[in-house]
């Protein structure tokens, strides 16, 4: 696979990067959403997209992308969890905080899969 094919692959609708999946896994475990967490763990273990031969950092998982094959209702549940977390971190006067913005960015990333 060459760089152009890889770029096309990682920009598909059902693909997320390692950091998003890792943060999602940690949040799901902390909220005792073990069934959803198992789905994310399976994706991290089995669904990594193969990097091109000349990738700058072929063995670093933080630069990896994964095919997300969760059901629509599972994705919706993850989005709801991040919406709840975002709301928890909005300031008293309704202004956003850095943490609320972080969770909002995760909502956006997961929303792209729906």
Task: Walk me through the structure.
- There is one protein chain.
- With 114 residues, the protein is mainly alpha-helical.
- The protein has one domain (3-111).
- It is 57% helix and 5% strand.
- The chain has five helices and two strands, in the order H-E-H-H-E-H-H.
- It has a two-stranded antiparallel sheet.
Q: Which keywords apply here?
A:
single chain, 114 residues, mainly alpha, two-stranded antiparallel sheet, 2 strands, 57% helix
Topology readout:
Blueprint: H1 3-10, E1 15-17, H2 18-30, H3 34-46, E2 65-67, H4 72-88, H5 98-111
Antiparallel strand pairs: 1-2
- What's the end-to-end separation, in Å? 27 Å
Shape: globular
User: What's the helical proportion of residues?
Assistant: 55-70%
Radius of gyration (CA) equals: 15 Å
Task: Tally the beta strands.
Answer: 2
Number of domains: 1
Task: Work out the helix count.
Answer: 5
Q: In terms of per-residue confidence, which ranges show pLDDT below 50 for 5 or more consecutive residues?
A: none
Q: Decide which structural class fits the backbone.
A: mainly alpha
Biggest beta-sheet profile: 2 strands, antiparallel
Mean pLDDT: 92
SS strand fraction: 5-15%
Give a brief rundown of this model:
With 114 residues, this protein is mainly alpha-helical. It has helices spanning 3-10, 18-30, 34-46, 72-88, 98-111, and strands spanning 15-17, 65-67.
């Amino acid at each position: 696979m060459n760089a152009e094919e890889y770029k096309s692959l990682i920009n598909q609708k059902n693909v997320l990067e390692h950091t998003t999946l890792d943060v999602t896994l940690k949040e799901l475990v902390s909220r005792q959403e073990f069934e959803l967490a198992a789905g994310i763990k399976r994706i991290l273990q089995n669904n990594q997209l193969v990097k091109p031969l000349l990738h700058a950092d072929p063995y670093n998982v933080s630069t990896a992308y994964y095919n997300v094959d969760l059901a629509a209702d599972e994705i919706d549940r993850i989005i709801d969890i991040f919406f709840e977390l975002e709301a928890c971190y909005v300031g008293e006067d309704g202004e956003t905080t850095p943490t609320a913005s972080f969770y909002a960015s995760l909502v956006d990333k997961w929303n792209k899969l729906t």
